[in-house]
Amino acid sequence: MSTKKGEDVFEKYALEAVPKENRQSWPSIALIWIGTMICVPALMMGGALITGLNLLHALLAGIIGYTIVVIYMSFQGMQAADLGRPTVSAAIPSFGFSGSRVLISLILGISTLGWFGVQANVCGAAFSSVLNTWLGVNFPVWLSSLIWGVIMLSTAIIGFNAVKYLNYIAVPALIALSVYGTYSSFVKYGSSILSSYQPPTPFPFVQGIALAVGTFAVGGVIAGDFSRYARNRREAVLSSVWGVWPAGVAMLFMGSVMALLAGTYDITQVMSALGAPVLGLIILILATWTTNTINAYSAGIALTNLFQLPDSKRALATAIAGILGTVLAVAGIMNYFLNFLTILTSTIPPVAGVMIADYWVKKKGDPSKWFKYPGANWVGILSWLIGALVGIYLKIGIAPINAMVVSFVVYLGLISVVKQPQPVPSKK
């Protein structure tokens, strides 16, 4: 990251290691994750959980779900802090140079592009709705999604520092406004329904946990894109724990409460009912912006790796990724949100399962054993595929955990019987 006078404002590190002198304090990284967690899909998930669980069980499902994410996210983050490299680069020994370049870049790139489209679509729809309700202006949702997608892309193009400073400004405001919206719902609608509420379409508790994991499954795997800036393992873990867990659980709780009291998790509708539509819109825009910056940023790194671009082209790759995500928003990807979330829940966590098995068990967490494995590591690819299929088709337990555990176990089993080449470790 360049911060010295006269140097480029754009981040210059993409696939290569971030030097120690450019590392950041853990609160800076945690604040980025907090900004990511304070988002409309988290509120939406709170609203979805109480359709099948009572409030207490919905909250417990969120706590367990995010705890699971933070655990594997911490391992991903510590590896990135050791290597100074983003997820797609750290994954090279696990999946091979070609496997990481094609498979992992596509999986993570498509996932983050999809999330970018969902968020921009949500923001665009809400913006158009508020303009119609407040001013009587019929503003097309597709155009609103396009405009806000481009605006949110700007900070991701600049890089890590822009993301960090955006969250310095937005996170305190988001916390205050979200708490105000929830408190106002209590005042306006009362709280009697909370204790007596029974879900209209009950579903198993484990399904609620799976939904909570799925909400941030991608974030847990791509943690290395930001934790590579952590100064050491301890700070990588601290940034994950304090960045994800409190904010994520709080947003699920507030989404559940607002859905019960006000009849909707949509913060813009809640604030409109309270007579403050503009305030609700500000919350939504800031929440979407802080989260979507992460999506575009990680998608840009994935494209940089996919096409083997030099680090200096990261900003261009991020711009292209954001444009593609905005096209998805214009096309109305929000209509397919639940299907999209189900696929992510099963296919993303096994990436972390393979990486954790390779780095923390096979290599015993030794960064000196990291190397650019040539070609494709079919052991890693096959392990991921088996884990993903188990996550999709096994209908018992928690799908993302099934997928991750299976990929972890299969990888360790295969490397014990399949002879693999041992390239000379590369200097980082």
UniProtKB/TrEMBL annotation:
Keyword match Transmembrane helix: yes
Pfam families to which the protein is assigned, alphabetical: Transp_cyt_pur
Membrane topology: Multi-pass membrane protein
Main localization category: membrane
Keyword Nucleus in annotation: no
Compartment(s) of residence: Membrane
Keywords, ordered alphabetically: Membrane, Transmembrane, Transmembrane helix
Similarity field: Belongs to the purine-cytosine permease (2.A.39) family.
Protein name per UniProt: Cytosine permease
Organism expressing this protein natively: Atribacter laminatus
